[in-house]
C-alpha cells in the first residue's frame, strides 16, 4: 500500500471526520484564546515554537476527550484506532501550521491573485494576466473559516479575530502574501489573497520585467539618491508596493529607514541591503474597543526615531497631514503609495484625505502643504497592448495656486500607455539630479526608451 493510499484509509474511517472537526476546533480556538489572554496581560505573543507546542497539547487533549466520550457511549461507534487518531492529529497540525488547501496555489510562483468565494469556488489570476477557476481549497465553508482562523491566530505581531463579532480579517501570510477574509456579511465566507511575486526587487529587475525602460531606471534611481519625495500611484494590484521596493533599492545602505503600514507588506526590514530599518504596523482595537494605533500616530512616532527617510506603505487618510509635514520639514527622500487612476488625480485624492483628517484642512491649505512636501508623482498602469504593468506618467510638482496644484507631466503615456518624455524637467531639478550622478543627456537621446 502506498503512502497516499495509507492516508486515504485513515481519512475514510467512519469516525475520522468527527475527530478531525473536534481537534481542529480545539486547536484553533485554543491558540486564539492564548494570544488574546497574553495581550490582555501585557505579555508578548508566543513565538512559532511555543504555538506549535501549545497546539500539540491542545490536539492531544481534544483527541483524548473525544475518545473518553466515545468510551462512555453504549455503542462506542465513534472510537478510532490509535493509528488513525495519530494521523488525524498530525494532519490537523500540518494544516494549522501550513496553508491547508491554499498551499498548492501559494507554492505556484505564477499565481498572483487568489479569490475564494466559498470553499468550492476558487478563482486565480496568473502573472501573465490569465484567469482560471480551480478545484476547492476546503471540503466545506466551515472548514474554510477554520483555516482562516488558524492562519489569523498565528500571523503578524498580534491576534487577528475572525468571527461574527469581527467578520473581516486582514493578515500577512508566512510567504509575505496579504490575505483578507470576510464572513457573516456575505452569503458565504470569502477569501482574497494578493501575492507579491518580488519580495525584494531592484530597479534593474523592474526594467527586465518591462515595468520601466533604461532611461526611467536612470531617472528614478537619481530621484531617490537626490532625496526627492516621491508618491507612487495607480489602481489596485497594479504593482505600487513592488515599485516602492524598487525605489528603496536605490537608497544608500547606511541610511536609517522607518516604514509605516496598515499591514506589513514592504518587508524592507527583512532586506539585507538595508540593515537599519524599523517597520511599524497600525494596530486594530482589541475586544474592548481599545488600543487602536493609527498610521497617522505612527508617522508622528517615526519622526522621533531619527529617520533619514519615512516610507508609508499606503496613504489612506489622516496620515497624509503628518506625512506631508515630515516631507516638508527635513525628511527629504521619503516615499508613499496612493490609490489613484491618474497622476493628476492623485492631487484630488490627497485633498479629499486632508479635508477628512482631524486637521480638516481646506483646499488652499492642502495644496500649499502638498506642493511644499511632494516633488514627484509616479503613476503605474497596464500597457494597452500586452497588459504589462508599466510606468505611464511622471509628474513634477511645481507649486500651488489657490485651488490647484501646478505640475508638469515630464513623462506622459504613449499610445501603448508607456511613459515617454513630455514637458522638460526644470533646470534646478536637472541640476539637483546631476549632483546625484544623473546623466541628463539620457533625456535627449533616442536610445534607452521603450522598444516595440
Structural commentary:
The protein folds into 3 domains: 1-97, no CATH class; 101-195, Beta-Lactamase (2-Layer Sandwich); 203-443, Rossmann fold. The radius of gyration is 26 Å and the shape is elongated. The chain has helices at residues 3-11, 16-40, 48-72, 82-96, 103-106, 141-153, 203-209, 214-225, 240-248, 295-302, 320-328, 345-356, 363-373, 427-435; strands spanning 111-117, 122-126, 131-134, 168-172, 178-182, 190-194, 230-234, 257-261, 277-281, 309-312, 335-339, 376-382, 389-401, 404-413, 419-421. By secondary structure, the protein is an alpha/beta fold. The protein contains 14 helices and 15 strands. The longest helix is centred in the N-terminal third of the chain and has 25 residues, at 16-40. Strand 13 and strand 14 form a beta hairpin.
Which tags fit this structure?
37% helix; nine-stranded mixed β-sheet; six-stranded antiparallel β-sheet; disordered N terminus; 452 residues; 19% strand; 14 helices; elongated; Rossmann fold; alpha/beta; Beta-Lactamase; 3 domains
Question: Percentage of helical residues?
Answer: 25-40%
Count of DSSP E strands? Answer: 15
User: What is the distance, rounded to the nearest whole angstrom, between the alpha carbons of the first and last residues?
Assistant: 57 Å
Rg on CA atoms, Å = 26 Å
How would you sum up the major sheet? 9 strands, mixed
What is the average of the pLDDT values? 84
What is the overall silhouette?
elongated
- Which series of helices and strands comes N to C? HHHHHEEEHEEEHHEHEEHEHEHHEEEEH
Query: Class of the largest domain, according to the CATH hierarchy?
Result: Alpha Beta
| CATH architecture annotation of the largest domain | 3-Layer(aba) Sandwich
**Strand order, sheet with most strands:** 9-8-10-11-7-12-13-14-15
**Unreliable stretches, pLDDT < 50, 5 or more residues?**
1-11
Query: Remind me, CATH topology of the largest domain?
Result: Rossmann fold
The fraction of residues in strands falls at 15-25%
Q: What is the CATH superfamily of the largest domain?
A: P-loop containing nucleotide triphosphate hydrolases
Tally of alpha and pi helices: 14
Number of domains: 3
Sheet/helix structural class? alpha/beta
